Amino acid sequence: MIDGEMQPFDLTLDKFLDHAAKWHPQAEVVTARDDGRIDRIGYAALRERSQRVSVVLRELGVRPGDRVATLAWNSQAHVEVWYAIMGMGAVCHTLNPRLTATRLAAMVAQSEVRILVVSADLAPLAREILERVPTIGRLLIIDEPDDQVDQPSGTAVVSALEPLIATARGSVVWGDFAETTPSGLCFTSGTTGAPKGVTYTHRSSFLHTLRLLQADVMAISGKDSVLVVVPMFHANAWGLPFALPAVGGKLVLPGRHADGASLARLIAAEAVTIAVGVPTVWLGLVEHLEASGGELPTLERIIMGGAPLAPALMERIERRLGVTVQTSWGMTELSPSGTVSPPADPARSAALAGRPAVGVDLLLTDAAGTALPRQRDVEGHLRVRGAAVIDRYFGQDEAATDADGWFPTGDLARIDGQGNLVITGRAKDLIKSGGEWINPAEIEAVVGALPQVSLAAVIGRSDPKWGERPILLVEMREAQPISDEALLEPLRGKVAPWWIPDAVVRLAQMPLASTGKIDKMRLRSEYGG
User: Fold this and answer.
1) pTM (2 d.p.)
2) Known catalytic residue: 223?
3) Tell me: the pLDDT tens digits for 367-387?
4) What string of H, E and C letters represents the secondary structure of 254-321?
5) What are the angstrom distances between the C-alpha of 107 and each of 79, 112, 122, 132?
6) Is 468 an active-site residue?
7) Active site includes 365?
């Protein structure tokens, strides 16, 4: 007997744009420009332009497996470059423009980048990178190159990409490689340690995309207009530049402006139904609307992740915007989505990070990595495995997982009786005071719920007697008088007395890392001595 067979169909990312170009050719990719104008293009035209970028890259010597870096904002041009690089089998190494030139140079030197694609306004930063990495031979400028821009110097050839696209002829075969081929490279944010490179494959990102589209995850459809504020330069913008073409939805990109006024205009103009970003972004939107007035009636849902969400902030956002907030949890190493609260879940709360969809599995262990005998309603060290979870870091020989394939996330967590994940803290954030552990996240959750507080963070400060003692750092929401004692009072009876911080430090602005998380490394450096 001869078994039947299914057609070979490698899960490569170019197929998403091919599908959109054929079946949703007029569905739009929209980009907000600095001068207030809006660029828009259909998927069919975008695919044609992206193919031309592949031709340009091939003429510049890019071959499958080569790494091409991008230093750019969320824009149409960046999307075109993404698909051009990945479609031809090269690796798109996204760089975070909010990092220092020294740190970015170390990343591109490690990945042996020879071509850097950069947004015009980031050219000065690119020049600083080139001074440190002279092996980069070509700089391609996107997003409205300006003759007055401070152009990089040195040995690299600098040119605008647009004229090269206009003269490109021919085509490049996309997807002519195995689905396990690397597609992207992103370094972790480094908020709790040194950044490490995470390599995504076509297969991992393809399966991650299919997971996002499920009804109990992001539930994106062709009728949706989705504002992607999560940056394309970090963790694949949560996979949304793949998910929107997959269903023919409108992809709305804010360019480099993510302030409340700019986002409010864009949401209204493009009838945005779903918006995705970190909590600080939506706090800015709410504060703008509270100050200036206005409504956003088309907006239905906001999907948040990247940082803990205070209950008071979630309630404030839902009340002012009339939306459903979906909380989530993920990491760069997870491509990045791990869990998402279902959009219609009546048990939604700021504390719950959602349930894992098929393709992701969770495990709670003790500090040594041994699975806890009970997995529900107990706190443990969180591990994860799945089709879009890291196996080893870029440039490292040893696996990042244990012998059974579980990746230790560094998070402390609980899983409730319904399977909802609750992140209770970071193992690296724990404060050891007098030989006993203090969990900053529990303190932050209580203080962060106060209506006067915008952001709260707890770190350990060196103490000659106890080793470390907690201190509380807060950014106040507005000029409402509240004493230090009133800030600490809600902790009494909710945490152990010796957990209560020894001091309160009020900050005009909480330092945030490039991904919107509170930068605890910087706080420890400045206030932990």
Assistant:
1) 0.86
2) no
3) 899 999 999 999 999 999 999
4) CECCCCHHHHHHHHHHCCCCEEEECHHHHHHHHHHHHHHCCCCCCCCEEEECCCCCCHHHHHHHHHHH
5) 22, 9, 17, 11
6) no
7) no
